[in-house]
């Protein structure tokens, strides 16, 4: 058990020192380029420091697919070891100070102790995630045919009670939001009464909503399909928006980038949710075909930029009620999760910085003049700038690493973890 910075500070300092001259030169050059556009690079670096992205506690383990899970040597076996790995990501990257726990996976006897141990590692807790998508040992009633929308009242009550337990635990951890995603739906036309199922959802969610503390929110996460393959109760942002509107101001819609139909214009959904004060935040990931849970920005970085273009626009115009919670939600199957999380957090930061560089005044004029080509060109100009020196300088100024993955590999963290955390012999399908 460690109770301070997990990676040797001297190792980071020495590596930063070696890279410092080149970074200074690249940063100065980029600074000159931006100055020609009336942008002060130091202001962009400070602005970037306001962005933080939560880590999912389950993201530091190997994810797996519906076929299999290949455990990684040294992967964390409990929430305390998960926190250690999250602390590595935060120490090197300096943009991920919070961890989002998942119940019952992260259940502990003493939440106050857990909170203190997280704080000793420089971490706090973000939204608590409930889990009614699987049956756990000792669970009285099964979720095979649904949870919050189950036809049996007793099952619904069990699912409601679990969500309220999540709120109670979250209060002790310092969280201020509950994220609810349910798997409920049907595999066959005719299997469920589509109207009644949604009515039961609203009734269950009202009970959960009523248990929220004053300063808490509930984030409703929709998902198009899977595990239900014909009809999913909370399948799209429209259903999510209706539910959030019915419940009240503490309920908002969470956008997981993998939970939409292919070709959906996600940035437009984001704009709508912002406009009507219903954007809860994001689960960032990337995909090619469906809910692939690939690393953020690895397939379509332009998509993340277009979303951040809307987010930055809202931030700069001070849109009412705008306070999105950002989180990564990915399944790491072929990489070291710590490396994926470092790269993914950087992808979020990159999109944010690029969106900050958009010439919004020019864009508005071009939009007003219906100059489609010029407007498109103005927007794209922001992603044609290599902003890596800004990201690296931001990490350095906040005490992190210029080259996080390189230092992580040199640190031998994974090999040490493999020795200190003997693997349990489990290989269960594990998509989350
Ligand atoms: Mn998600």
């Amino acid at each position: 058990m460690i109770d301070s910075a997990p990676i040797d500070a001297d190792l980071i300092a020495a590596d930063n020192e070696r890279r410092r001259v080149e970074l200074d030169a690249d940063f100065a050059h980029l600074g000159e380029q931006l100055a020609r556009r009336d942008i002060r690079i130091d202001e962009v670096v400070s602005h970037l420091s306001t962005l933080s992205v939560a880590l999912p506690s389950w993201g530091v383990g190997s994810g797996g697919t519906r076929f299999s899970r290949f455990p990684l040597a040294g992967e964390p076996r409990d929430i305390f070891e998960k926190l250690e790995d999250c602390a590595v990501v935060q120490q090197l990257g300096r943009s991920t100070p919070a961890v989002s726990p998942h119940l019952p996976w992260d259940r502990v006897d003493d939440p106050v102790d857990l909170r203190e141990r997280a704080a000793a590692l420089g971490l706090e807790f973000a939204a608590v995630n409930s889990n009614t998508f699987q049956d756990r040992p000792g669970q009285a009633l099964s979720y095979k045919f649904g949870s919050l929308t189950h036809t049996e009242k007793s099952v619904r009550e069990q699912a409601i009670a679990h969500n309220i337990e999540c709120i109670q635990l979250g209060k002790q951890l310092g969280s201020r939001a509950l994220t609810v995603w349910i798997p409920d739906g049907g595999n066959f036309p005719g299997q469920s009464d589509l109207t009644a199922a949604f009515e039961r959802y609203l009734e269950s969610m009202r009970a959960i909503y009523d248990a929220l503390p004053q300063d808490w929110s509930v984030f409703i996460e929709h998902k198009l399909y899977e595990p239900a393959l014909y009809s999913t109760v909370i399948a799209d942002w429209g259903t999510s928006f209706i539910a959030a509107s019915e419940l009240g101001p503490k309920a908002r819609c969470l956008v997981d980038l993998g939970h939409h139909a292919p070709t959906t214009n996600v940035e437009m959904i984001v704009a709508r949710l912002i406009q009507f004060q219903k954007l809860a935040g994001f689960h960032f990931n990337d995909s090619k075909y469906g809910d692939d849970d690939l690393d953020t920005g690895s397939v379509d970085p332009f998509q993340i930029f277009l979303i951040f273009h809307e987010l930055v626009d809202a931030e700069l115009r001070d849109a009412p009620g705008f306070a999105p919670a950002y989180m990564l939600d990915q399944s790491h199957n072929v990489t070291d999760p710590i490396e994926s999380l470092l790269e993914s957090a950087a992808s979020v930061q990159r999109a944010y910085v690029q969106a900050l560089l958009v010439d919004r005044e020019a864009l508005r004029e071009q939009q007003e003049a219906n100059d489609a080509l010029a407007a498109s060109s103005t927007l794209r100009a922001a992603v044609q700038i290599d902003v890596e020196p800004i990201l690296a300088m931001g990490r350095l100024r906040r005490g992190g690493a210029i080259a996080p993955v390189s230092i992580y590999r040199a640190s031998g963290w994974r090999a040490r973890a493999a020795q200190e955390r003997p693997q349990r012999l489990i290989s269960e399908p594990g998509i989350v």
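The chain has a mean pLDDT of 96. Residues 221, 256, 283, 329 surround manganese (II) ion (CB under 6 Å).
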